[in-house]
Amino acid sequence: MANVIEYATPISFTKTWHTEPYPFISPSRPELSTKGKNVVILGGSAGIGNAISVAFAQAGPKSVAIVGRRLDKLQEAAEKVTAAASDRATQVLVESADLQDRAQVDCAYQSVVDNVGNIDILVINAVLLPAPGGLTDHKPEELVRAIEGNLLMVMNAFQAFLPFAGPEPVVLYTSTCLANIAPTPGLAGYTISKATCLKAMDYFAMENPHVHVVSIQPGWVATASNRYQEEAPDKAELPGQFYVWLASPEAKFLKGKFVWANWDAQELLERASEIQSTKLLNWVVEGIPM
């Protein structure tokens, strides 16, 4: 019998904790409209990524482009996104690319721009999953491959994005809470590789202050990557719609921050001034706010 990984009980930053979507983050809210925007989702063909693609389509953008490796899966996902679009004029594009290959990422972005114009919102949702296990017994070369693969995808994604970005670019990165909570037994390789990427996103945000960057713990959703865990309590539509809210003007105060999709967006907004002016929700050592 496979070992069962025991996850820490989450502590919420907001009084309200969500496991499914709610009206304040609904893509149908006029305040969250993406009218005229071009959205690109990397890793958007299944699970949380597909829910993100669907949610953005519901917000009425000019286009939604899904980028991934398998063309057949991309085409299946595109059908769902097209059906969900609130505006029939929304173009749904698919681009097949290995995100670890910079040239392929460049080609995918170029194709999107040639079809619809500059990219306004980029969602980096792709990930490589190393085998679970303890760090003491982990083969170093396997861990290095996981770090290299995930970091390549993230760096290719944001470096290639800058020349194609619109005037008010948004980058949303699917991270994991494992990168900034107490160690979880059995998940050393995944956690270390994602922590590396999270710090890379911090540097990208610092070096490019004109880009609205937010890193997200998307919730615990039953997906293929976790073998559809029955105990996973969150609906994929929760992060899907939360990402739409994060890309809206309402969430500008979260620039450079790390947030959980389970947190209540309205409560976060009520604390906007405090969050924006302090190190709250930044990845720092507690007690040393620098």
Automatic annotation (TrEMBL):
This is FabG. The lineage of its organism: Eukaryota, Fungi, Dikarya, Ascomycota, Pezizomycotina. It comes from the Eukaryota. Pfam families: adh_short. It comes from Aspergillus parasiticus (strain ATCC 56775 / NRRL 5862 / SRRC 143 / SU-1).
